Amino acid sequence: MKVRPAGSMMTLADSMERVVEIPDREALMVYLLDNFDFWEPTPENVTCKFYARDERIDWDTHLICIDGKAALFADGPIP
């Protein structure tokens, strides 16, 4: 799965420059702990749900949240 920041403070182009490939849930947890440790991600508080189809980038965009806070957009569900 590919992920990118979900922050609204950057353009889509800026966000796409930060795309990272994540192979599985374990790697996602490592990425979240490395980049979002201030939100204390755990397997229990990390969720992923369908957000929208983004034709601009050909993604069925899913939103990954930590304890209900938007962290990342993904190109599909967590494997």
Short description:
With 79 residues, the chain is of the alpha+beta class. It is built from two helices and five strands, in the order E-H-E-H-E-E-E. The longest helix has 11 residues, at 25-35.
Give an overview of the whole structure.
This protein has 79 residues and is of the alpha+beta class. It has one domain. Helices cover 20% and strands 37% of the residues. A 5-stranded antiparallel beta sheet has the order 2-1-5-4-3, with no helix packed on it. Strand 4 and strand 5 form a beta hairpin. The longest helix is centred in the middle third of the chain and has 11 residues, at 25-35. It starts with a strand and ends in a 5-residue tail after the last strand. The mean pLDDT is 96.
Termini separation = 7 Å
Output mean pLDDT: 96
- The main sheet orders its strands as 2-1-5-4-3
| Helix and strand element order | EHEHEEE
Helix content: 10-25%
The major β-sheet equals:
5 strands, antiparallel
- As residue ranges, the low-confidence spans are none
Overall shape: it is globular
How many extended strands? 5
Structural class: alpha+beta
Question: Any idea what the radius of gyration is?
Answer: 12 Å
- Percentage of β-strand residues: 35-45%
Query: Count of helices?
Result: 2
Number of domains: 1
Observed structural traits:
79 residues; alpha+beta; 2 helices; 5 strands
Question: How is this fold's topology laid out?
Answer:
Elements: E1 2-5, H1 12-16, E2 20-21, H2 25-35, E3 46-54, E4 59-66, E5 69-74
Antiparallel strand pairs: 1-2, 1-5, 3-4, 4-5
